[in-house]
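Ticket #4471: structure output looks truncated?

Reporter: J.K.
Steps to reproduce: submitted the chain below (141 residues) through the standard prediction queue, then opened the result file.
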Amino acid sequence: MELTIQSLAENLTLVTSKRPLAENFQQALEEFLGKHSIENKEKIIETIIANNLDIGCAIIKNAVVREALAEASHDIEILQAVEKRKIAREKGAPHYDGTTAQIWTSLPDLLKPNPRGLTKEELKIYEDFGGGSSKKTNEDT
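Returned output as attached by the reporter:
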């Protein structure tokens, strides 16, 4: 559970914060340097942003991951869902939550949850995203 939450939080944070952070850096630096007569302000701003954007994103990412993990560790529904999956895994059976199946009735068949698990192609998407898995696919059985 922790790795999934961490991976999602990191990737979503990076996607949503990098550009706004760069824009805020640029605005702040333009305001600060605008008060001084300095040559090559654009080059200075570009260099400062390039040198500090990854650090800023890492700080934001770490804060978001800590908060997401803390919230998930107290969410009863998440904890119960994780426990159901652990029990299914211990029994060697795929987990399928039929109680939420009604939510998916309007989806095309291709997008609906499958009680047999993922195909190799579907599993590859998760692995490529960073959530590598050793779970069986329905093509393995």
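Triage note (M.O.): checked the attachment and the full token line is present. The longest helix spans residues 2-34.
Status: closed, working as intended.
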